[in-house]
Amino acid sequence: MARTQAIALPRERRTAAWWRTNATALLFMGPAIVLVLVFLLAPVVITFVMSLTDLATSTGLSNWQWIGFENYARMFRSQFWLVILGNTLMYVAIVLAFNVIVGLGIALLSVHMEAKAGGVFRSLWLLPRISPSVVYALMWTWAAASPPFGMLNYIVAPLGLEPRFWLQSDPWLIVILINGFVGASFGMLIFTSAISAIPQDLFRAAQVDGASALQIIRRITLPLIKWPILFVLVYQTMSLFASYEYIYLTTNGGPGLYATETWSLWAFHTALSNYYGNLDFAYGAAMAAILVLLGLGISVVLLRVFRFEQLVAEPRVEVD
Amino acid sequence: MRVALERLTKRFGTVTAVQELDLEVRSGEFVALLGPSGCGKTTTLLMIAGIYRPTTGTIVFGDRRVDHLHPKERGIGMVFQSYALYPHMTVSENIAFPLELQRAITRPDREARVREAAAKVQVDELLDRRPAQLSGGQQQRVALARALVKRPDILLLDEPLSNLDARLRHDMRGEIKRLQKEVGITSIFVTHDQLEALSMADRVAVMRDGRLQAYATPDELYAHPVNRFVAGFIGSPPMNFIPADLAARNGDLVARAQDIELPLPPAQRPRGNAAGATVGVRPEHIAIVAPGEGQAAGEVYVVEPVGREQIVDVQVGGRVLRVVAPPGYGGKIGDRIGLRFAPERLHLFDPQSGDRLA
What we know:
Chain A has 320 residues and is an all-alpha fold.
């Protein structure tokens, strides 16, 4: 009834009515909307717009021109883009797996421990995250230093491994471990609280029903924390695609040419820190734009795989 | 299967939840663990289930000691207060879960048993629903089906009715009792509601502060409570307690409080030479009579009609006694009345220990 009347009103009356009903809501949401627009949406738009120009140190802020999709064409003409894409996908996939599996492992272990011990154990795993990234990265560079130094060499010596300069010989191993240990604590926090939120009675019921500890994890715990797992997967995927600071601080994309260069590091090098002194802002922006598309695409795939709609509970029906 | 608890004790840190509990449940018997919250009844049940380990003491099923066994090795089924249905599984998956974990059961056999268990508790129409789509009563039934589907020797129920509304609670009370007799399974249930315990159980174990207070049939608990706590906990409305002096008069013993004088028949006389006692009398064992008659005089304080009877609070001297009156009683606040106590229904308790004196 009310609806049909509203449609019958002249346009200006309708607009006024809309403002009357929604003004308060908008007012309350205003600050948040401004923040989202300025700090989240605007950078993406600016990046994309900038990627259509030739803005660089050489052009300055006054001499740049619109060049359409030339930056994108140039990117895919580069002989390194495939290597770097491969690096990126491998880096994201392996570190993501490490983060989620180790995070889940620590969460499961720590909630099955005595409460205090579990807390201490989790705090230890939080150390990489709470220490400043430069300090943490430096620690790793020292640990992986060339022989006869480097704590890693001492740790692996009893296993019969030759001492080596890990950052040179196995750069990916170090890059994956350093990111993995930081990322695992994120999953750990989310999974621990998700597991703790499962009612105790469900675990007791499963025990009485005859389930072993492993069966309880597989049949009860994991299905019930599906949503947090999905969240961590998507969130970590996004942040790994965008993260480069630990690689920058350790191998800086090396050794050699683009050995551990990932897409975001490539964008950073191109736009803000390249060898030639010509900072290619626009070209770097184009690389960043590709990164946004890549992250979006993969997230959509993950949401599909996990059948997101089905995670939303169906309404309760009272019949009695 | 017979269940025996011997000197069962559970401590959590410095707190003793259950202390030296001895209890035997006969095969096929339906026993209630009754007590106020914090009395140790749920802890006891969880020890029987194998979820808590006893600090000391033993648990015997049949003639097998089980206190070191995991829940799954004990042959028990359990219904939880929250029902604990797995929210990500349908009703039929929930019921099938205990069977799926047993490799020996084939798929067709499993499906047949799920259908059979579901039919027994009338949820066979709901097999494809998820727990969130069920009402409280339906969830309760599914939980029962899941507990019974693997044909356990012992059924444990933790506050099975406390999450249901009053009407449904009444229905389920009868149904669970009938189901228990039909299946003939040894069952133990925990409740804080004395009415539930009395109406469902063959025998009731009353617990307080981790200790067993009484273990008897509902009739026995009602008629001969062993101490003041049991007397006050069993029965609704609760028993009246009157501190009184005991004195001899004309060769008879009387209990005397301010405005009340109660002659005690020989059977009610306490052993020994007690000078005082707490006299307990249930509201249904006091009758309202004309003023001047009976053993006490009082004034109607308030009248609460509850359908088939009326609960009348009567002011006698400085205290209020609760009396059950028939539905036709037309007393008004302020009416002066007399009270007649049924002498053979008086209970005498030690004023200090609370133990029964006679």
